[in-house]
Amino acid sequence: xxxxxxxxxxxxxxxxxxxxxxxxxxxxxxxxxxxxxxxxxxxxxxxxxxxxxxxxxxxxxxxxxxxxxxxxxxxxxxxxxxxxxxxxxxxxxxxxxxxxxxxxxxxxxxxxxxxxxxxxxxxxxxxxxxxxxxxxxxxxxxxxxxxxxxxxxxxxxxxxxxxxxxxxxxxxxxxxxxxxxxxxxxxxxxxxxxxxxxxxxxxxxxxxxxxxxxxxxxxxxxxxxxxxxxxxxxxxxxxxxxxxxxxxxxxxxxxxxxxxxxxxxxxxxxxxxxxxxxxxxxxxxxxxxxxxxxxxxxxxxxxxxxxxxxxxxxxxxxxxxxxxxxxxxxxxxxxxxxxxxxxxxxxxxxxxxxxxxxxxxxxxxxxxxxxxxxxxxxxxxxxxxxxxxxxxxxxxxxxxxxxxxxxxxxxxxxxxxxx
Length: 419
Description:
This protein is of the alpha/beta class and 419 residues long.
């Protein structure tokens, strides 16, 4: 088996500095790694991981290796790889890595295939591309797979659809469902890093701009909050009436997509669905409209229709492509419509990924301990693991909270007391 396919191994020393910097901000995962090195709870497990290849992910891979796992890594998005980190994983940590920033679709799936050549017993996915490939093109490997984990909302949606159709062949832990993941990573991590990606790609001033947020889940909430804090006039587009009502009561204007297309200057999608804005909307967008995606796949804008309609296109800045419409108006698409926070920036800060990847590591430990009782399906992170991650994070931040007194605990569990 080929041990690696990365852009340039000469970048390894720079990548190691990034990994060490991130590690200093990931104390919970570091504590888990120290225990894993002692207890070896993943000993002998072959793991194929399909994740964003970042400095934070590198520290997760180090933790799996410390726990005894034989792990390989490929990228879960063609633009999300940090080439220096990939080189360091191979050179300094001897973790086979298959990822190159900007790889084409064929290379992307060739790298997933290389990770599957590891003949995994466990899959670790971010978006379910590896799981999908395993269930379609590499079914001969399924008998050897005992379980998996999934990192993100889009992947959980795909896996639940597979499970409902009776197609999912093994149990998968939905790390994204942990409160210490989606309440923090999705909201604060993506909220900050998506705005960071837009600013790095364009250097526009957000203050005074009309920013249209497509979707008001935890990711959309985070982006709206950060855009609002930087002085943007925030508009929210939603299909769910409860979330739309929440956005309205949070103080944002709520519109349908057609109306928002006419007034927006910056459009950021966070739905996990396709064609949030498409051909008809592009015709109404003002000159200079900027389109960025914070969802997992590059389907949230109807890019094929934009390319068909435009009279010309060119890259005007790194990760910024200008499309000239027949009227002369210009529309700018960031990071090829892929994850703007990883395509044009560095992804989530390590401080928040500390909790997400702590859940990944502890979720794997729980999976191994409970395999005998799990049927194929999607399982949430147990509440006690979620709360332990929160406790460890608070401890690392120097924050203490008050426990309930015995009387308070008894009261909270009783039914006799009343007015």
